[in-house]
Amino acid sequence: MPASAARRPNSSGAARLSIGQVLGSLRDEFPDLAHSKLHYLESEGLITPERTPAGYRKYSREDVDRLLFVLRAQRDRFWPLKVIKEHLLEHGVDSEVTSIASRPGPTSSPQPVRLDRRGLARQAAVEEDFLAELEQYGLLAEGLLFYGSAELEIVISARDLADEGLHPRHLVMLRTSAEREAHMIRSVAKPRSRGGDAVARGEAEDFARDLGESMVTLHSAVLRAKLRET
Predict the structure, then answer these.
(1) Which InterPro entries match (predicted)?
(2) What is the pLDDT of residues 65-83, one digit of tens each?
(3) In terms of pTM, does the model score above 0.70?
(4) Nearest residue to 151 (alpha-carbon basis) of 180, 183, 191, 121
């Protein structure tokens, strides 16, 4: 069960949550979730919180369940919003799909983690000297107090490559390529944010994520094609 499930508020009665309470209850599983994302999903008709007479949003348990479905479908299956909306209209939120994050699959993401440096090394089965080497070549950010699932995935992948003779010093070109791709994606997505518009910022974040996934898919396809040529 995802960590956030234990933090969901009691659904008895007609209790409604503020946007801050919703973000707090989901922070363990979605640490980067922001107001702008919720505003964007609302503008797309994926969640429909009630409004108080003063205009404040209030979320029901059903709203939170729909939100969890949307976020997990995006993260773990890379479903576009159009597909998510169609699925919700046809099937609603059922228990099987709501727990999508717990079901393994070819595109599933690592479960959220929060590790200190020693914990990261232990979890990845490497020495801390290996972490220092990854930092030296820019593959792991320096100065972090805690590490998440992305950093754990980097360390494990780098460890597996090192076992085959490709050490961090050999991977600088890969890091440089990723930095250039990230810069390109941000430059394309940034104009969509339109300053302080929260909905537009959420749209830009989703757009950048979708571009990133397309870039990863293309990179994998090109690499496979090139390997077949050798």
Answers:
(1) DNA-bd_dom_put_sf (IPR009061), MerR-type_HTH_dom (IPR000551), MerR_fam (IPR047057)
(2) 999 999 988 877 777 788 8
(3) no
(4) 121
Q: Which helix (H) or strand (E) holds 57?
A: strand 57-58
The CATH class that applies to domain 3-102 reads mainly alpha
> Is the Cβ–Cβ distance between 129 and 137 less than 8 Å?
no
What whole-number distance in Å separates Cα of residue 34 and Cα of residue 30?
Answer: 9
Tell me the C-alpha distance between 125 and 35, whole Å: 37
Q: Are 18 and 56 in contact (CB under 8 A)?
A: yes
Cβ atoms of 108 and 76 within 8 Å: the answer is yes
Cα angle for residues 35, 60, 207 (degrees, 5° grid): 35
How many degrees, rounded to 5, is the angle at CA 106 between CA 164 and CA 222?
60
Encode pLDDT of 150-160 as tens digits. Answer: 899 899 999 99
- What the block records as the tokens of 50 is 């009630």
Of the chain, the end-to-end C-alpha distance in Å amounts to: 45
What single DSSP character describes residue 59?
A: B
The percent helix, strand, coil of the chain (3-state, each to 5) is 65, 5, 35
Q: Which residues does 11 contact at the CB level (< 8 Å), separation at least 6?
A: 61
CA torsion, ordered 15, 20, 22, 28, to nearest 10 deg: -140
Query: CB-based contacts of 19: which residues, under 8 Å, 6+ apart?
Result: 35, 38, 49, 57, 59
